[in-house]
Amino acid sequence: MHRPPAPYTVRPATSADAEGARRLMLDTFYRDFGYGYVPAWHQDVIDIKSTYLDDPRHVLMVALHHGEVVATTGIRSAGPAHPPHPRWLAERYPSATTAQLVRVYVHPDHRRHGLARTLVDRACAFAAETPGYDCVYLHTNVDVPGAEAFWRSMAKEIFDARTTGEHGPGVATVHFEIPLL
Predict the structure, then answer these.
(1) Residue 129 — φ and ψ, nearest 5°?
(2) In the sheet where 68-77 sits, what is the strand order?
(3) How far is the first Cα of the chain from the last one, in angstroms, to the nearest whole number?
(4) Which residues pair with 72 in a beta bridge?
């Protein structure tokens, strides 16, 4: 398991981390993704406490730098939604047994320090230790610089939506799986 370099602390989020995590996530939607907050996609960001902190099958991991949240990664008991994702994909990854890896975000000033890899490792360890999960599923927008190479180094591609156009034109979504250890 990867360890973050000093002066970073990686741990499960607490209520005290919720506002900093929310700020980082919203900044990522606007700065990196360019589309901002979308209520249908981002409800967990608004209600971090009930989504991640109150559900024993969910977790939000955070990386802190001098007490400030600079990176996040979450696990939710949820498969991909149909629509917008293909029905066969939603059936392959049912919500009850799928640990979906979400919100893998690192503030630009703190990238290239191994934080994302460390957070993903810890989130996957959480999923492996939580009864009922069969696998870890994720999808990513490969138009985000570095995203595709990062996920290919850690996960197995399941479906590249760019090749079929099933998500519609201009959507660069690739779906991955990480086996539980």
Answers:
(1) -90, -10
(2) 8-12, 59-65, 68-77, 98-106, 135-141, 173-179, 156-160
(3) 12
(4) 62, 105
How far is residue 33 from each of residues 28, 29, 140, measured CA to CA in Å? Answer: 7, 5, 11
- pTM confidence score: 0.92
Measuring CA to CA, how many Å separate 105 from each of 26, 71, 77, 91, 157?
Answer: 10, 5, 19, 27, 20
Half-sphere exposure at residue 52, Cβ-oriented, CA atoms within 13 angstroms: 29
The residue type of 137 is Y
Tell me if 78 sits within 8 A of 61, measured CB to CB.
Answer: no
- Rounded to whole angstroms, the Cα distance separating 106 from 128 reads 23
CA distances 35 to 31, 77, 105, Å, are 8, 25, 15
| 6, pLDDT greater than 80 | no
Distances (CA, A) of 102 to 42, 66, 119: 11, 24, 11
Closest CA to 8 of 113, 108, 80, 153: 113
Q: Is the pLDDT score of 91 beyond 80?
A: yes
Buried residues in 99-128 as b, exposed as e (16+ CB within 10 A): bbbbbbbbbeebeebbbbbbbbbbbbbbbe
